[in-house]
């Protein structure tokens, strides 16, 4: 059976094209860094070394506290995070990344870097650099260039831990 190259009947809009790109990224992550699903990676990559409460993490990841709590439970069961009572409030839980979580993040970052390199090869390094700058400007509302180069992840969130 031959592979069919499917193209949309309508002119592709941005969300459709982004979905196509995300599908490729998900496939590559599943093959090369299977320990985390992209949805789990989305939560884990917001954790600075000192940790965040679930509420702070949910705000950073732009999700509900309940949904974030479900991801935190999954990540805890995988040994990617540790959850403890927050020092400032016995009702709150502070989430910190573990060595296993850092290793999974590093592997995922390598896969994502390889995707960047492949796309830069496909369209040319200068066009890809401009694409990333424009995308960062649109996505981050002008905070773009400095955030795109940020590799550690510890300065990305606007929410910082309290107490």
TrEMBL record:
Pfam families linked to this entry: MarR_2 (PF12802)
InterPro entries reported for this sequence: HTH_MarR-typ, MarR/SlyA-like, WH-like_DNA-bd_sf, WH_DNA-bd_sf
SUPFAM superfamilies xrefs: Winged helix' DNA-binding domain
Protein name: HTH marR-type domain-containing protein
Chain ranges of the HTH marR-type domain: 11-140
Superkingdom assignment: Bacteria
């Amino acid at each position: 059976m031959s592979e069919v190259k499917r193209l949309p009947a309508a002119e592709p809009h941005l969300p459709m094209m982004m979905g196509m790109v995300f599908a490729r990224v998900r496939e590559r992550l599943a093959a090369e860094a299977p320990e985390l699903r992209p949805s789990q990676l989305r939560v884990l990559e917001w954790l600075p070394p000192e940790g965040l409460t679930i509420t702070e993490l949910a705000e950073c990841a732009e999700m509900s506290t309940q949904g974030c709590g479900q991801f935190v439970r999954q990540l805890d069961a995988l040994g990617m995070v540790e959850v403890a009572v927050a020092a400032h409030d016995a009702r709150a839980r502070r989430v910190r990344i573990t060595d296993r979580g850092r290793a999974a993040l590093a592997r995922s970052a390598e896969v994502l870097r390889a995707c960047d390199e492949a796309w830069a090869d496909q369209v040319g390094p200068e066009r890809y650099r401009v694409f990333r700058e424009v995308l960062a400007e649109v996505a981050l509302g002008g905070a773009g260039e400095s955030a795109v180069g940020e590799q550690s992840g510890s300065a990305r969130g606007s929410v910082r831990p309290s107490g």
